[in-house]
Amino acid sequence: MLIIKNANIYSVNLDGTEIRAEAVAADDGKIVYVGSNEGIRDYESSDAKVIDAQGRTVLPGLCDAHVHATWSGSAKFSCDLFYLAQTGGKKSIVEKIQERLCKYIKENPDKKMIKGCGWDYFDFIKALPNKKMIDEVCLDKPVFLESYCQHHIWLNSKALEMAGITKDTPNPHMGLIWRDKNGEPTGLLSEFSAINIVKEGIPDYDYTVEEYKEIIQIYQHEYAHAYGVTMIFDALSTENGKKAYRELAREGKLKLRVRDNYYADTAKPRSQFDDMIAEKGSSDVADLYQQTTVKFFMESGTPDMYLTRPYNPLALIAMKRPFGHRGFPHWTAAELQEIMPKLADAGFQLHTHAMGDGSVKHTLDGYINTQNVTGKRTRNVIAHLMLVQPDDFTRMAENDIIACVQPTWTAMTKGEYATIRLGLGKKRAEQLYPYGRFLKAGVLVSAGTDFPVMPPPDPFIDMQHAMTRKPCKRFKDYANSKDFMLAPKKNPAQDLVKLTDVIKSRTICGAYQSFAEEYAGSIEIGKSADFAILDRDLFHTPIEDICETKVMMTIFKGEIVFEREYDHQERANLHFQ
């Protein structure tokens, strides 16, 4: 028996019904009592584990509804290139990367392949990355540097040779091999179909299953449980990563629920979807690991997000794109009309990466057609949703489409970045990340961090950013950016949300997205005993201090899986103090 008492217990259901209590009891991994301190006495016994919360807030186990848990291996097994532009004085970004690479290679002399992750495409507007920049540092070993967003990879000459990429290698569908004026590959590849030439074409490029098991367990303890997270949607894992999850689940070492997905690859034949349908459910391990979703990318990364109107002309010059450019969809309407109903009929949920308003609209068209054709609503999701057209809020609500948002991006997408580097202009930039407008329209909203694309995976930083749309004081550049607010001056509160809204998105809405709301996501009798015990009463914490919240204990299925016995130092604090 596990008992938590003297607590400020809070949970909320999908219909908005709030659950508040002082105490909760769990037995055999399930909640058996929710109520007062007085009532909990009937459950106390000599063998009960009793936790005195001392007035702290207790929430249901949190959900990260869009995260790349297996990508967190880059923090352990590769060279860290995140945010180098903001460090090291006036040196050029190329010099900083070369220095970091040199240091990493010297410290890891036994590595046969050098991998790195974290560089930003927009730090290279004047001169795009090329193989010569890395060759100056390393010629004898292949070097593979993935961008922070994972939409680009930068190779040296040895890596190009190993991947078999030459002047004669054609661009794959919806992928780009950058070339010089003579047609020779420069070393830069963009989008997954091109990047997969490397990742799938080089034996042993991916981490091994055993390495992934180590990566997942590190993520589980330091990036999930340390933040009260007991459920995730891993938004893109490899076959070795999936196998590692399954093995950990069967070994009893996976202490959180994982929802995984198949990747809809634009470069592969339509038979890939027949294979997904044939395999559906065969890799599931009870409620711990389920591969229930197919993920689509509806557009390229910046500067090729699909917009309804072109990028600003001056930005297009810097982006090296033609005037009138507004990006492009990766899947045609005809393709979506053919593929999506087939997947929905098989019971798959669809989860689509769409940032630009053109991409969101195009995705919605595909989803709504699918639902009309099949008569099924399989809790389809659109993730990121940077820019959304007004009529699409209503369409999402009316068709039960889930919006999966990343609130911290509101603080990271500061004025110059959105208006100039993203090429959106001031008016469009003020309308980015419309969390509040989703709620007002009646859209169900889940929340994720997209970690490690956006570190750290801290839900309480997310909560504060959602409530303020301003950088929090843990932000390294806080002194220079604290007065910035991503909002229109005439209506600054249009997308602000309440604390209870973000808790709902992080708990029951995440569980609903994962088809787990019947047994997780709220604190109710009969549900899984998943709790996050915080270091404070969250409801009496000033908004500007919510980002300082720590999780003192995380409980999953009645088992204490994390206990803060020391001042936990997150590995993923890269952009935060």
What does the model show?
There is one protein chain. This protein has 577 residues and is of the alpha/beta class. Among the domains are: 2-60 and 522-563, Urease, subunit C, domain 1 (Roll); 71-199, Diaminopimelate Epimerase, Chain A, domain 1, CATH 3.10.310. Helices cover 31% and strands 21% of the residues. It contains 21 helices and 24 strands. The strands form 4 sheets. It has an 8-stranded parallel beta sheet with strand order 8-15-16-17-18-19-20-21. It has a 6-stranded mixed beta sheet with strand order 3-2-7-22-23-24, with helices on one face. Strands 9-10-11-12-14-13 form a 6-stranded mixed beta sheet, with helices on both faces. A hairpin with a 2-residue loop joins strand 4 (23-27) and strand 5 (30-35). Helix 18 (459-468) packs across helix 20. It is globular. It starts with a strand and ends in a 14-residue tail after the last strand. The model is unreliable at 566-577 (pLDDT under 50).
